[in-house]
Amino acid sequence: MSKNLFSDFQPISKEQWKSRIIKDLKGKDYNESLRWTSDEGIVVEPFYHNEDLAKLIEEYHVPLNLHTRSDNNWLVMEKISVEDAKTANQKALTLLNQGAEAIEFDGKGQALTSSMVEELIQGILTDAAPVSLTNFKVTSDVKLPQNIILKQDVISEKLNTNQSVNLGKWYKDHQHLRATYLYVDGAVYQNAGSKMVHQLALVLTVTNEYLAQLSASDFEQLKNIHLKLAVGSNFFFEIAKLRAVRKLLQVLLYAYTNNDVSIHLQVESTGINKSTLDSYNNMLRNTGECMSAIIGGADIVHINAHDYLTEQTEKGKRWARNISHILRNESHFDKVNDPTNGSYYVEELTAELSEKAWEVFKQLEAEGGFIKSWEMGMVQEMIQADRSAQIEAFKSGQKVLLGVNKYGQANLTWKDLPTPTHPLAPLRLAAMLE
Hints:
About 45% of the residues lie in helices and about 10% in strands. The chain has helices spanning about 15-25, 30-35, 50-60, 85-95, 115-120, 155-160, 165-175, 185-190, 195-210, 215-220, 235-255, 280-295, 315-330, 345-365, 370-375, 380-395, and strands spanning about 35, 45, 75-80, 100-105, 110, 130-135, 135-140, 150, 180-185, 225-230, 260-270, 300.
């Protein structure tokens, strides 16, 4: 019979570990040498202990797996720009045979008709390979098959084009398209330069705007919240962000309904850290971001090609899809569900991001919610402050992009970024040196 060796050793407290570390520092200051503060205002410790985990369980009175799913299966998504429906459909069928497992058709602003939908999905087994539609102009008479998702976050869309939002009227006119799900685009805030706490808070308050429009009968039909998020290179923080958003949305939903509403995460690589300089570094960034997405619990993952800023080659797109396939088929990321569950460090990050985001969410709700806060300029000021902080950190070298502001090409000249045309305009830091 095997012997449990853990019983032969006395447990060591967090304070004992800290005392030993201080001794080994030989007079150096513990706080200055080993602790650091993140962009989110979170003080990161040099080590974490099971006492931290016990504190979280006692403080929140919820199981640590509240934010997790029952499996770790994710789908690899490919985006297709629609010039005409037949050509887009043929491309989708080809890509589904080349590693894509879900398709998003981008209408590029054209009008959507029921006949176009039928042509787009011709021959696609949508039960096995989910299909979604984005950037289409949709009228109230369009009929969609039950399992086709219309990705239309009208709040972000209208505010991004400086239009007023009459959410009640829009929701009433489009009720037949959104009977069983809500869609919220949270990636737009990350790509505009917003820090994680604010991304989470804005996603919550936008979701709350939609939920407030639902009647009791609507909640009976509501089955899913589809949320799009972007992830960057801050590996553990991005994992914690994805875990935090499930937890926060479940808390928000509980205030409205006891029905089982699933949270469906589409996660994509951010554009904020990508560059045309040494573009193969984008592939390395993509790999870390894909890992964060998978470990964080993404249901669908989309990785932009490393060369999407320049050539946008089919080979680049295939390599981007294959990052997911290698992590699944060769690294077996699908075999462990929620591998960071119980991690002292990640659980602490998840809790702190959740707590800070909830406080910002409450501040926005106290002003009347997202739309009211936008009309007052609060949201824009929040995003602009985050954006400016990222730019300054990049200029100073505190925020590093390899091949750009560190170990980059010689004789690069700094230039100012153009004034953003809109508060939600995407930020790309490397443009200052390209």
